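I would like you to sit down with the record closing this message with an eye to the fold:
=====
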Amino acid sequence: MAEEEKGAEAEVRPLKGKQEAAAAGQGGGAGRWRTGAFFLSLFLCLAVVFAFSFVIPCPVRPVSQRAWSAPFAGAAAYKHLEVQDVDQDRVQDILFAFRASDGTHNSSTNRSCSAEGFPSPCAFIAAVSGTNGSTLWEAPVAEDLQFMDCSFEYGDSQGCLVAGKPASLATIDLKTGKTVWRVTANLPSNSTLLSPLLLIPDVNGDGVSDLLVFAAAGQEVQSSFYSGKSGEEIGSSQSLHLPGRRGHLMQVTQAGAHYVLFYTANALYGYSVKQLYSRASGLEDYRGTSLKEDPRWQTAIDDDTHNVHLLSSGEIRSVVKVPGRSGTDILLLRATSLELLDGQRLGSMWGNDVIPPIQSEPVFGSFTSDEVDIVVESRVAPNKKVLVVEGSSGNIKWEMDFLSGVGTPSPATLLTADHRSFFLFWGDYQPGRNRTGSEGVPQNLYLFHPSFPSVLLWMNNSTEAIVAFQAVLFERSRHACYVLLTGPEASGSPGVVVLSKQRLKDDMANSHVIWLSQAAQDTGQHVRDRFLRMRYRSPR
């Protein structure tokens, strides 16, 4: 029996050994296949990485020159200066306007006044590359220029909205400089087109924002609606009785309601765009438009007179919008005081006295982190006082006296990464020095930052007549520069107009440090180094 069991086991073991050997062979084959698949996948991945890294070229980042200067001969400049990315290279470009007989700078884009049907000389708009100062395009746009806004969007494109003299409206394509449409405004012969033109929601259902245009004729203001797509008038013109009108602006509330505020020397008046459109179109049905009214504004505006109640009195010089935490607010600049209105309910938030008389339109920056503060200049010739006013309270945060000549540019600001701002202004800082006239006052550029409240940097000076000045971040959060437009103004005889860009850090490196107090002073080089290390932040 035992021998039979041994025989059976001997018969089974050879078969089992063969099966184990076969299984081992099959496992080895599968392992070799897995190893091959792994190395093949690795090879393909490396090939893809190699292709994207070396074979397929990466987009070339434009190299921006640190400084450039572009002369335009036989021209006289308007004060209009705007910043947009015209050629879509992610570097901001400059658009400005001049008056000339023909295109002046680039023969490939040269277009004459007569070719567009204008008498010579006429108004041109030029687009200049922010990277190197080359002319991207220049185009005659009107017989004489009154207003331009190069942020107008029509469909998927962007253009410059232009108001000309005599009364005309046009849209110029931002990329090419070609005229999209041009019309003669339907205005009485004795009326004057008023700036600015207002962009409103689409009211005729063609998918493009439309225009609200005002014209003055004596004590009357005529309102008209125009299609942003074609320039055709929508509805009929209507008249508003506004004696002593000085200016206007449009406010959009958080509820999405559009209102126009007119101001005179002593009063503020409010009209809803919905109400104005109802008068022009004769319609009460607003389906297809987003026109509405805000109950809070309707309460603040008198139904009969359209008057807005104000906290203080005094001559109103200007009304501007101020960025706020919950939208935009309304700042009234009086002859010697300021008053801020809540942009959502039209109630007064604060008022303060600023003496001597206010000289220029305000600009906005941040003296304190994440605050929106107001920079104004008040003037008694030949001196001016630069004031930084806290936007939330009206308190004066900082002030400085300068000598100032005629035509000194307004201030400018650049937001820094610490949520405060560089403040740039022109004049002549000469403490304790008296001057009886404003002739011959140097035009020096100064820089101030709240992190060094006792320091001014004297950056540069200009011997040319400055028509326009602006501080610009040419690339997002970097490449901080200032732009100067110098030469004869459009109201004078032609000459050489020069548009120039200067990198801020280059001027900082060569600046002169001015100490405003006798407190413990650091070294000038340490201050310059601190400023040079500061980073920038693009506005939201």
The CA atoms of residues 473 and 480 lie 5 Å apart. Confidence is low (pLDDT under 50) at residues 1-16, 18-24. The radius of gyration is 33 Å.
